[in-house]
Amino acid sequence: MDNNNNYEFQETMVTLTDEDGSDRNFYVDEIYETGGQLYAALIPGDMDNVTEYYVFRVKDLGNDDFELEDIDNEEEYDAAADAYEEKLDVRAWNQTYGKAEE
Fold it and tell me: Fewest beta carbons within 10 Å, which of 4, 31, 54, 75?
């Protein structure tokens, strides 16, 4: 996998349809790689205080297009969620101590 991808999805909103057929908006908070796979962490667009997030596998379709895939494997989901939470910790650390994110 190409490690030189610089995905800039700040303020990107996506609409996902749940099992009941209801559409729900999410912000793409982070696109990141772990274990050679791209993942996206999404936060609900209808929440004032973010208390939950969802992780999806990212399938790169080329030409800056991507598709989000559900992660059915619990171990993969947990690893991807742990990697996202580490990124949140780094973000909080950088905001607290004024260091630039890498």
Answer: 4
